[in-house]
Write a structure and sequence with these properties.
With 260 residues, the protein is of the alpha+beta class. It is 26% helix and 28% strand. Helix 1 runs antiparallel to helix 2 (199-211) and helix 4 (228-240) runs antiparallel to helix 5 (243-259).
Length: 260
């Protein structure tokens, strides 16, 4: 078949194919997947409550009078950076406004230690003098940190180096050190993280996404009006993973009732 001439700059019409109609079950499955996807894309910031929470993008909030955090520049210089995104000045609500304030936290396999990678793709490092930099491309003991949850103040941590010293901030809040011998107010930090990486929140959001289906949608899938206990049964099945089996049971029950 001869195709019509097309000229440069001329828009060509693309014929859209009509999508095949989806079954009720497919539509419900699609809605569940979209809701779960929304949970995975939640980029709000929350507090890490335990070391088990720590993962993905984090902000290490320092205990300075004016809220600051650990940051680094492209050359790997580590410094304190003032936080601007706060609710009524509360450091527990801090969010980053600069990519230099964000670190990617990862647990090192087989250990209780974490590493923190900066925006420059280099790891946070503390040397034997307690000085920080972010220039290392590989992980050695100097790039490994243990996040110890504080027993006095929930939602705070003391970050320990492999030399058993702690990250701290000077009294004036201008310098970060890694040579504090004991835990104190100056070593107590908060770790803010993205909600989508927090295991408990992630599980709860995915659970709610599975539960999110209306009675009308369930009745459409079954093909008849449902009793309240049947609705509860099907919603529970969506969470537990045997929805299609329970759906079939309810349909069969409806047919038996019809002919009894």
């Amino acid at each position: 078949m001869v195709k019509p001439l097309a000229f440069k700059g001329e828009k060509t019409k693309v014929k859209k194919r009509k999508a095949a109609p989806m079954s009720e079950e497919s539509l419900q499955e699609k809605k569940t997947q979209e809701s779960a996807s929304d949970a995975h894309e939640d980029d709000s910031w929350v507090i890490a409550d335990s070391s088990g929470d720590i993962s993905g993008p984090v902000v290490i909030v320092l205990p300075s009078t004016q809220p600051t955090c650990i940051a680094c520049d492209a050359a790997g210089k580590v410094f304190t950076s003032e936080l601007e995104n706060l609710v009524e000045g509360d450091p527990a609500t801090a969010e980053p406004h600069d990519i230099r304030q964000v670190w990617i936290a990862s647990r090192i396999a087989g250990t209780d230690s974490f590493c923190f990678k900066g925006h420059n793709q280099r790891y946070l490092t503390v040397d034997n003098l307690g000085s920080f930099s972010a220039r290392s491309e590989a992980i050695s003991p100097e790039e490994m940190f243990v996040c110890i949850a504080s027993t006095d103040t929930p939602g705070t941590f003391n970050i320990q180096t492999q030399r058993e010293t702690f990250i701290s901030v000077t009294d004036d809040g201008k310098e970060i050190r890694g040579d504090a011998d004991t835990i104190s107010f100056n070593t107590t930090v908060r770790i803010r993280m993205q909600a989508r990486f927090k295991p408990r929140l992630k599980a709860n959001k995915e659970l709610k996404a599975k539960e999110k289906i209306s009675k009308k949608e369930l009745e459409s899938a079954v093909g008849r009006k449902l009793e309240d206990d049947e609705v509860r049964k099907l919603k529970k099945a969506r969470v537990e993973g045997d929805y299609h089996e329970k759906l079939l049971d309810v349909r069969v029950k409806g047919k038996h009732d019809k002919y009894s």
